[in-house]
Structure formats: C-alpha cells, structure tokens
Amino acid sequence: MKAAAPAPRAAGVSKSKPKPESRLAMIRRARRINRELAEVYPYAHPELDFRNPFELLVATVLSAQTTDLRVNQTTPALFAAYPTPEDMAAAVPEELEEIIRPTGFFRAKAKSLLGLSQALRDDFGGEVPGRMEDLVKLPGVGRKTANVVLGNAFGVPGITVDTHFGRLVRRFKWTEQEDPEKVEAEICAIFPKSEWTMLSHRVVFHGRRICHARKPACGACPIAPLCPAYGEGETDPEKAKKLLKYEKGGQPGQRLSPPPDYPGLPAAPLGARTEP
C-alpha cells in the first residue's frame, strides 16, 4: 500500500524553532549593550561617598544588606569619630556599634571594621593595600569588596558582582551562573579588562534606575531591543516611566556628595525630612 502523503503545512506556519544564540553573537550583543549603557549613564560612578581608600573600604563593608544611601547617611559621623585605621582600631566596640547601627547587622559589621582596622594598622602601616591577595585577607573583605576598592581607589580593573549586577547579567543572558565568583569569571571573559570597572557601574546604575528586581520598567528601557528578558516588566511606556528611580525619575540619588557631573539631586542627610 502506498504511504499517505504528508499533510500540507498551513500557509505562514513554521515548525522551525529560533536558533540558539551563538557565543560570538552573545558577545557582540553584550558589548553593544555596554556601549549603549555608556551613552545612557556617562556619569556612572561608585555610589558610596568616600575621600580615600580607607573610607571606601569601610563604606563597602557597611553596604552589605543595606542601601548605599543608608551607608552614606551614616559615614559622616563615623569618619568624624574615626578618620584613620589607627583611630578605628582603638574604638570602643559599643560606641562604634552605636554609630553604624542604622546600616543593620551592626555588631557583625563593627567586628569586621575593628578587625580590618587593626590589620591595616599592624600589617600594612595604616594604609589600605592595593592588591587583591592582601585585601581579601582583611576581616569582612571578600572579592566583591576588594574589586570595589581596587577599581575605584587604585584604578585596578575589576568586575563587582552585587545583587543588581548578578540579576541583570542573567537577564541579559550573558551567564547562567549564580555564584558571584563564577559570574565574575564569565563576564570578565566577555569584555576587555579596561571596561570591567565602568561596566560594573553602568550595569548597577541600570539595575537601580530602570531594570528593577520586581518591576522592571521595560517600556522605558533604552536597551530593550537588545534584551532577551524584555516583557518581564511593564511594557507600556507611560506606565513604565512612573517606575523610574533616582535621576531618571526626578528623585535624589544615593550620594550626599555626588560627583560634579551627576545630573541628579544629592541625597538628604540621615534624619532629614524628605518628600514621599
């Protein structure tokens, strides 16, 4: 018996699945996203207030499990009381805890600050070291903190994998890794070393302002055509605009003392009344 002919395919219907993105195509798309974010955030910067490597190191340790804004509102009093590692190393623990209480987890953070200050005093002549292998030996300092300090206080390129960065690079399909060190390694392999520090700032800026965790403002996103996750958030342009934060939404930023080229408003000091 002759086999029946296959049924004709309906016009306009294709059973073919879109081809998976090649690694080369992903790298090209990733680098284009970086270039476009550089145009959107030419003023991207570390959002912790600091005047020297020690202040940046301390502020970064304090930023765990809280906002940069709350850290920036807390550190003026902290550095007025303990301006150097030697001063902080000699602090009365309970007095240090009380100053940093607004940042949360203040007992554990005070223990780290006392430990790292004592190590800086005793092992590094009161100076913050400029090498990864030295920084990660300090109490409370991991690769993320070390990369922040190296990139922004010493000009040593590094990828800073915080919660915003990790969330966005997975949304962008640059990596599927969850472990921060594996994320760091995979992203480092995509971009030239010279881009690592600024890429970190741009991605974090985008995550804080537009590509939020729960309600990304997809309809107001300048890189939407390049994003595989487009549609996870609000796609209506007018509704999306209402989700924008910080300078994109006309609100104060995280820093009390932002850089001169920052287009937004400075944050208010701790305890100051702000508009809802």
Tell me what the structure shows.
- Helix 5 packs across helix 6.
- This protein has 12 helices and no strands.
- It is mainly alpha-helical and 276 residues long.
- Helices cover 45% and strands 0% of the residues.
- The longest helix has 18 residues.
- The radius of gyration is 23 Å and the shape is globular.
What characteristics describe this protein?
single chain; about 280 residues; mainly alpha; 12 helices
Topology, element by element:
Layout: H1 23-40, H2 53-62, H3 68-81, H4 85-89, H5 93-100, H6 106-123, H7 132-135, H8 143-153, H9 163-171, H10 180-188, H11 196-209, H12 237-241
Concise overview:
45% of the residues lie in helices and 0% in strands.
Q: What form results from the Cα inertia axes? A: globular
Helix content: 40-55%
Give the biggest sheet. Answer: none
Total strands: the figure is 0
Rg calculated over all Cα atoms: 23 Å
**What would the average pLDDT be, to the nearest integer?**
93
Q: How much of the polypeptide forms β-strand, as a percent range?
A: under 5%
N- and C-termini, Cα separation = 79 Å
